[in-house]
Amino acid sequence: MNSTSSSPVNAIAAELAGLDPAYAPTPLLNLPALAERLGVAQVLAKDEGRRMLGSFKSLGGTYAGLRALARASRMQVADLLAARPKGQPTLVCASDGNHGLAVAAAARFAGAPARVFLHEGVPNARAPHREQGCRDRVGAGHLRQCS
Predict the structure, then answer these.
(1) What is the pLDDT of residues 58-112, one digit of tens each?
(2) In terms of Cα–Cα distance, which of 61, 66, 65, 91 is closest to 80?
(3) All structural domains of the chain
(4) Is the pLDDT of residue 143 over 70?
(5) Which residue in 11, 14, 60, 104 has its CB near the most CB atoms, within 10 A?
(6) Long-range CB pairs of 32-37, under 8 A, 24+ apart, other chains included
(7) β pairing state of 114-119 and 28-30
(8) Are 94 and 145 in contact (CB under 8 A)?
(9) How much is the average pLDDT of 2-23?
(10) What is the pTM of this model?
């Protein structure tokens, strides 16, 4: 990757790290015992469990949600987070997992409402969006049928 293509990546990383230390780069762990067991020279693993929502998947949904709200408010993300203006649009997505949590977190950071649509087969244990302060609706079939 050249420096021009990494520039937006660095800007996104800096913006997310400013939200919460949990968005900082996560450690790369060396696992020599596993490497020896597998007969390979080295095994490295990223420890993404330290992130606020416990997954790297939280990065994209949070960033996209905040950017959408900032664009709608004609503000920079930092200004949006500081002002938390009233009357923001509702962030909406269909997810029964990490993406829905990330979208709900973005809305919560900005003081905006969120709706995460779930299909009827999602058990309560897989519907943690309620804990993130968003309203959810269970549809009668697949996610694309929720309304």
Answers:
(1) 788 888 999 999 999 999 998 999 999 999 999 988 887 788 888 888 898 899 9
(2) 66
(3) 3-145 (3.40.50.1100)
(4) no
(5) 104
(6) none
(7) unpaired
(8) no
(9) 68
(10) 0.69
According to DSSP, the residues that pair with 117 across neighbouring strands are 94, 137
- Nearest residue to 77 (alpha-carbon basis) of 48, 114, 106, 44: 106
Whose tokens are 């080295």? That residue is 42
Cα dihedral 94, 48, 52, 27 sign: negative
- Is the pLDDT at 50 greater than 90? The verdict is no
Helix (H) or strand (E) holding 56: none
Helices (H), 1-147: 3-19, 32-38, 57-73, 77-83, 98-110
Tokens of residue 17, six digits:
């790290």
